[in-house]
Amino acid sequence: MALHVANWPENLAAVSEWLREYPNMYVELGPAGGIGQAAAPGGEILRGIPDRILFGTDSEPVPEVYANYFRWLETADEYFPYSGYPGQGRWMIYGMELPDSILEKVYQQER
Hints:
6 helices, two-stranded antiparallel ribbon, two-stranded parallel ribbon, mainly alpha, single chain, about 45% helix
């Protein structure tokens, strides 16, 4: 398990290459901000390997955090705050509008 998108969400090209090279590698989506800064590449990775993406966060389990993740994964919203928490990034991100078939895998489907 490569937590936080292999700790390199800002370099999705490298993470994608590793995922192709290592078929038993999984990543989790803790740092939405890194991927969300470039919605198109992030969405392409998730669309390409949805069976190896796990939903996860190390933030507090409060509704505001999850609402932000759901907005990031489910909508095509543009340029919205990464999180309402001051220490969780001060940048804007883009929604990826993933289809239900991928969202089901990321959120809950057994592997």
